[in-house]
Write a structure and sequence with these properties.
Shape: globular
Number of strands: 10
Largest sheet: 7 strands, parallel
CATH topology: Rossmann fold
CATH architecture: 3-Layer(aba) Sandwich
Structural class: alpha/beta
Number of domains: 1
């Protein structure tokens, strides 16, 4: 696990966007796993700018989102379908048919979950998965106590997660209780993973993810077992890491050929 500590959320977004651009430049038919929420918004804004500048072409890219609320149609303003359209898809040249988001209105949820897994496999698996992290260490909507080998399925949100997402809805009672989410096992099959975290509220979850034991009570801790995962975090999110000076040292000592992705954008 690589831990990259940067100054602020903007630097985190720049490095994350640089990795996405590099992935697509190296493999134009890349399959990207995409996250939603507050943290990746600036990254998506930068990707739109880089597309406009001709630095990246998304025409052959396939994408799979991590999750969607059950009971929200894709056009609902708080749905992740709307989020992706408003923050990325309508500003770049990715093909609509290549953009995959779980169907929150599916009549047969188990069948929808199985179909989503099959689509990922048919696409050849995810090359680069972008993740955020919840204040309790959840990734996607895999809440604490989720199976570490779980697949795409229905999940019930904790009250903490519902409160964290409250600001996306007009009224508290509108926040859905259920979601369709990629499982932890599904996420771990991605070839590369990039987890983004900013702000002091994420500090405890980051410390447990990096330096705590691997446990289903902190689903993100399973990332310790992934061979190619990087946590890109700001100073505030790194606050509780006991070895943060070492992580900074490691990043500063990277040879030029390892740092060239970031250096051209930061």
């Amino acid at each position: 696990m690589e831990v990259i500590i940067l100054k602020d959320p903007l630097e985190v977004s720049k490095l994350a966007a640089a990795h996405v651009v590099h992935q697509v430049q190296q493999k134009p038919m890349s399959c990207l796993g995409l996250a939603t929420g507050s943290t990746p918004k600036n990254m998506y804004e930068l990707l739109c700018q880089y597309y406009e500048q001709g630095k990246v072409d998304f025409s052959r890219v396939t994408s799979f989102n991590l999750d969607e609320y059950v009971g929200l149609a894709s056009h609902h303003p708080a749905s992740y379908g709307s989020y992706m359209e408003e923050n990325l898809f309508r500003f770049i040249n990715i093909r609509k048919e290549n953009c995959h988001i779980p169907n929150g209105m599916a009549e047969d949820v188990p069948k929808e979950c199985q179909s989503y897994e099959e689509k990922i496999q048919k696409a050849g698996g995810i090359d680069l998965q972008i993740l955020g992290i919840g204040t309790d260490g959840h990734i996607a909507f895999n809440e604490p106590s989720s199976s570490l080998s779980s697949r795409t399925r229905l999940k019930t949100l904790t009250e903490q997660t519902r409160n964290d997402n409250r600001h996306f809805f007009a009224e508290e009672e509108e926040v859905p209780v259920h979601v369709i989410t990629m499982g932890v096992g599904t996420i771990m099959e991605a070839r590369k993973i990039l987890l983004l975290a900013t702000g002091e509220k994420k500090a405890d979850a980051i410390a447990k993810t990096v330096e705590g034991p691997v446990t289903a009570m902190v689903p993100s801790s399973i990332l310790q077992f992934h061979s190619k995962v990087a946590l890109v975090i700001d100073e505030a999110a790194a606050r509780l890491l006991t070895r943060k000076d070492y992580y900074r040292w490691v990043y500063m000592q990277k040879p030029p050929w390892q740092k060239q992705i970031a250096d051209s954008f930061l």
